[in-house]
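Entry 12.
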Amino acid sequence: MAHSKARAADGKVTYPPGVKEISDKISKEEMVRRLKMVVKTFMDMDQDSEEEKELYLNLALHLASDFFLKHPDKDVRLLVACCLADIFRIYAPEAPYTSPDKLKNIAWVKSYNICFELEDSNEIFTQLYRTLFQVINNGHNQKVHMHMVDLMSSIICEGDTVSQELLDTVLVNLVPAHKNLNKQAYDLAKALLKRTAQAIEPYITNFFNQVLMLGKTSVSDLSEHVFDLILELYNIDSHLLLSVLPQLEFKLKSNDNDERLQVVKLLAKMFGAKDSELAAQNKPLWQCYLGRFNDIHVPIRLECVKFASHCLMNHPDLAKDLTEYLRVRSHDPEEAIRHDVIVSIVTAAKKDLSLVNDALLNFVKERTLDKRWRVRKEAMMGLASIYRKYSLQGEGGREASKQISWIKDKLLHIYYQNSIDDRLLVERVFAQYMVPHNLETTERMKCLYYLYATLDTNAVKALNEMWKCQNLLRHHVKDLLDLVKKPKSEASNKAVFAKVMVITRNLPDPGKAQDFVKKLAQVLDDDERIRDQLETLVSPTCSCKQAEVCVRDITKKLGSPKQPSNPFLEMVKFLLERIAPVHIDTESISALIKQVNKSIDGTADDEEEGVPTEEAIRAGLELLKVLSFTHPVSFHSAETFESLLGCLKMDDEKVAEAALQIFKNTGSKMEESFPHIKSVLLPVLQAKAKRGPPRQAKYAIHCINAMFSNRDTHFAQIFEPLHKGLDPANLEQLITPLTTLGHLAQLAPEQFAAPLKSLVANFIVKDLLMNDRIPGKKTTKLWVPDDEVSPETLAKIQGIKLMVRWLLGVKNNQSKSGNSTLRMLTAILHSDGDLTEQGRMGKPDMSRLRLAAACALLKLAQEPCYHEIITLEQYQLCALVINDECYQVRQCFSQKLHRGLCRLRLPLEYMAVFALCAKDPVKERRAHARQCLVKNVNIRREYLKQHAAISDKLFSLLPEYVVPYTIHLLAHDPDYVKVQDIEQLKEIKEALWFVLEIIMAKNENNSHAFIRKMVENMKQTKDAQAASDPKTNEKLYTVCDVAMNIIMSKSTTYSLESPKDPVLPSRFFTKPDKNFSNTKNYLPPEMKAFFTPGKPKSANVLGAVNKPLSSAGKQLQSKASRMETNSNDDSSSNPGSPQRSKTSDDQESKPKRGRKKAAANTTTAAESEDQWDEDNRPEDEQNSPPKKGRRGRPPKSAAAGQDTPSKGRRGRKKAAPPPEDDEDEEEEEEERGDEEAEEDDDEDDRSAENMEVKPKGGSSESAESTPQKRRGRPPKSAQPAAKKPT
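Predicted 3D structure (tokens):
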């Protein structure tokens, strides 16, 4: 081409053969004749004819001169235009005219417009357009581009029509494939369409109408690209599609899934584009598009959800429209859609928090409880990244931080879940997003300090639990290392295997993890270096920096470059991640103490962090207290202990309590390592024990017990003056001495044996409990806050606790003190709490004493030597407290009961007490009781699963064995008066189903047949409590028939063979009479209608209240002896199958060895967040708690005229609704081992804050306004009839 341009430069024009020179010197006719020959020559030429192209280049330039383009004769201009069209074709992609002026002339004179008069003008124009689109390139300047647009637009604007071929020639350049190949052609087409929008719009509309509405895809080769073209045209000029967009609305409703999907993808781009105003301009189309969020086709819903993030980021004003549709999709049955809802919302939130409203963030929050792990993980990680950006890093300012302040609590609440995957992810999120472990120590501790101070109660408990679980796992790994180092033997191999199984349960996918942990044990045995590194890692003295080095070295040693995917290494990383102390070491504790001191001195940033200084100090000490359990060695520094001494002298009681507990947990070596601290601390402890607040006195005694070798001397120095100084006349000064003496009695019962027995018999019982010195306030209230409780009542409560602690310390009943104490406690329950029955006590004081007596009975029942002497009447009377008229009494008693059962300390018959909750008038109390049952059943099943060798304890552990206790308890229900009364039997049925629904949720190993056989056996015995009383036995058999009908109506496998013959507790039932066959049906015929068939619901654990955290466990195995119960048959008949039953998927976490802390069951079931949204199912009306059910309602025949049940028995008062005040739930105890049990006692001291919770939906009336008769007291000869409730 360069050569041809050189030839052109010499100016010589070469004509085709037979054609002479064409100039202004010849006639018009001759010029036309010669031009026709030139036209034919150019028409016959191909693009490949390089020689001819060079030969005729000057001729092409000559024909583009003004002389020809502006010639007065139209025939000449027409022939020249035809030549030029072919010239563009031949020389493409090179431009034959390098001079802008030449092209300008062609455009300006509109040379091609004359072609309109030709029949084949369409072909000429199409060829011209095609040629121009081919020749345009980077070498052309803006002027050339502009002249081309002028030339092409004149043809469209001045022509009568635009053919489909010509339109295709323009539009094809907008198709993505062409657009990417030739950007200049795309720009040319774009400029042309903008210039000719008004003229070309009807033809574009016609094209889309043919393809979209009439389905004539043959009209154009571009039919398959219509949606790409619509998008490009909209981006060029929305006016081009004014008539096309309504067609899209029609297509959105097409029956063809693929077609709808294509339209949805198109509109997603159009609505979501940055500057798009389509949603505002075409609201019907926008609403129609939103409807596709509910499309039946999954890919369409998925596309809509993906579009949401772009829409939120580019059009925040549309967030309101999207919110409801995203809410529905966040509950979509498809996992991928729920996942992408989270991704869309989180993506927008990470760009700018103001783009998402609280409702959208709440959808992500809900999905943290999704059924699918992938969705839960995405939601948790999304929230974590949002929290780190706006709260930790401070982007977005205080407002943004405040808006997402709930995230930290929510993330930690997930630790309440059963899944180990969820727990591991919470631990990872905490270490990487909430308190990043890579921060410098001071900054890390400051972050942790203020985080802990701003967490809610349940989040704090979850975080505490997390540290305890990690600490427990560290101990397990340390135990494994010790076992590996021992000489090989069969016993050591078994011990290693047992420890491997324990560690496996703390890792994801226990099935696979078991093999990997075995392999790790082998590696530890073989590789000394890895063993040493791991020993360093689990050492109490390991620093955070050392931990990082150890983890890096171990993973490097176990990794292999040749094996990029190494499941074994991944499992080891999980394990190391859980046990590595990346946050806490001696340096960290020192930094944390300094942070607390800054708050005390007033130099901290408390106000800037939004935490009041007092709260910050209190939270800091609570944090240190928790860490003193898990990292006691890290506290061993003089600086730390001196700071804690300073905290002991502060006025804030909570701070001093926490400091005392820290000393107790960490001060075991203080005598030898820090004698100067000891000499200062001892007088402080003695002063606290004598004159401090009750809780501080308690912790002071335990500090002395844990820290000093000559504790007996120190105890004596405290005991003697307190014992001698007891003065019943000065009640306010009695509470602390009684608390201190009670704990001394528990810790050193032998040291003070004689004075203690005298103290209990003479002072506690005669002077304190049997006297009412100060008349109580006359009030209808059943409960008052702590600060309104009379000193005398508080002193009596401490007296009761002292008696119990003394017995728990002695642990034998040789002196029959246990019998005397039990009689005293039951007398308090018999008398409603008014032991003297002089009527001088106020109702709130009576409630407090009833609660104290019932909790004392539960405490004694946990000790085998006292459980044996508790009579059935005393057990039943204690059970009836769960139906007390006072809401707070019911609440606290059920929590104490649950805690004792969870620790496997209370015998199995006490689980039956929860059956009485079926008629509690408060829905949340019923829900709580149900979840307590679920938790206890699951704990026992898991325990049996993990301890297969304890079949001799099966009778006291197997949940199915609660059925005979439940039947016996209900047969002795004081509300069950008339044996055949339908209403009373319906209540019995509800109570039985309350327990059986959970026990029968899964029929593993044919447990339904086992339960049926157990009920059948009961009908062959007599009630051991009154074996000779026909009515008592008839009641028992009737309740058995109710149970049998429930089993038959709810199970299809009850008639199968029972795995083994069940045994019955000999204290409750006589031995079966083999000569007696009791086949009689004791139920009235009308009862048949009340047994509806249907499967039991699965026993899901629905809430934080209902699902306390599994804890780093107290050694449950040692507690099994507490629950041994004599049976009336040989133990070899224990069923072998049920104990091996698998637990359900939603089972609570496993009981673990070591210390176990009671969990947080503090929120109501209605407020619970632990429920999968997809799991909501209406309750079976027959099985749900009755709407009207109030305990103690007399039979209908008597109800109209009186409130007293038949036979002169005082009726049970209806349980009162909860009070209005809403305060914190019961404080979680923090004590180890047996001290953990006595910790429960002092929680009653603060029962106002513990018990004043108003469940959601509870009555707005106060408890005081509905005093009602309590249930279950034996008749008294001179007892007046009860008044009707006012």
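Annotation: Residues 345 and 361 are 7 Å apart (CA to CA). The two ends are 112 Å apart (CA to CA).
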